[in-house]
Amino acid sequence: LCAALIGEMPELGTIGDKQIAALAGLAPINRDSGRMDGRRSIKGGRYVIRSLLYQAALVASTHNKTLKVFANRLKEKGKPHKVVLIAVARKLLMIANTLMAKNQLWRTT
Question: Where does the Transposase IS116/IS110/IS902 C-terminal domain lie (predicted)?
């Protein structure tokens, strides 16, 4: 995953979290019109990165202690399973972006 992120997203660590999420296609796009509040969906961005992060989120939401707590908190709030997985994928991307910006390694506590 790390090699793919670095290879496919050279911007990693150099731009903000919202911009990197939009590049990966993990930022919600609203479909509002006038007074109507439309649905939010994710689309666009780099499909390869989005699909890799989704697969990583499947594993991380069950095996990583920190992300498992995050996923369970969202499930308790009644969020659908796929919404939880996209939130975990976005969280993974934010962690990777921060680690690259600070030139640090992932440390589990």
Answer: 2-68
